[in-house]
Write a structure and sequence with these properties.
By secondary structure, this protein is of the alpha+beta class. The protein is built from eight helices and eight strands, in the order αββββαβααβαβαβαα. Helix content is 39%, strand content 15%.
Length: 213
């Protein structure tokens, strides 16, 4: 089954418009702006309100933008009250960090695999300071989907302004394979709409541009 999915993804990559007609984002102001394979940040973009996350809910030296940090701590605190451990294992990444990460994927697995699993520098949500990869106490985000923490996040993340950024079956829209550990802060109003309508941030943007939301 995994082989079939991989082949389908390769077909989509070969026939897509990903990484073409790229729009450059210079000074993002909203929390729901899109960074993906067709929208990139400049190589010198660094959010001016990054704040260090508490070690109680993250690994060492993890930063989020102020509003996202506040929301994440509120969410992780409630999860702990409910008996779950929500831990941030990857948050803000610089352009240079993402460049190294992507290039390592290319060297190890080739361009197609890299484009399926990793963003090119400038195209990574992690550079926004609004994205967070989450794990449970095992700190193994690759197996996060199998945990009770994932079930809690799936049902509650939107209440704190976060969305599951790369849902299953949406590769042709988001450009990235299913990542049950990757969440993005967009604000409660937007996250609730996306959750209730089972859509992606890209689909929400289309609706917003049409005046539907």
């Amino acid at each position: 089954m995994e082989k079939v999915i991989y082949i389908l993804i390769l077909i989509i990559l070969e026939n897509s418009n990903f990484y073409s007609n790229i729009n450059t984002i210079y000074s993002p102001t909203s929390y729901d702006f899109i960074v993906n394979k067709n929208n990139k940040l400049t190589n010198d973009y660094i959010p001016n309100d990054l704040e260090l996350l508490d070690l109680e809910y993250s690994l060492k030296d993890k930063y989020l933008r102020k509003e996202a940090k506040k929301a994440f701590i509120k969410m992780a605190s409630q999860a702990k009250i409910d008996g779950f451990n929500i831990i941030a294992v990857s948050t803000y990444r610089s352009y240079e960090y993402q460049e190294r990460l992507y290039n390592n994927y290319v060297l190890d697995k080739g361009f197609y695999y890299a484009d399926m699993c990793s963003a090119r520098a400038g195209h990574s949500e992690h550079q926004t300071g609004l994205a967070v990869d989450i794990a449970d106490i095992s700190l193994d985000y690759d197996n996060f989907e199998k945990t009770k923490e994932f079930d809690w996040m799936r049902n509650n993340a939107h209440k704190y302004g976060f969305i599951l950024r790369y849902p299953m079956g949406k590769f042709h829209i988001t450009g990235f394979k299913y990542e049950p550990w990757h969440y993005r802060y967009v604000g409660i109003e937007t996250s609730t709409y996306i959750y209730e309508n089972s859509i992606t941030l890209e689909e929400y943007e289309v609706k917003k541009n049409k005046g539907i939301v």
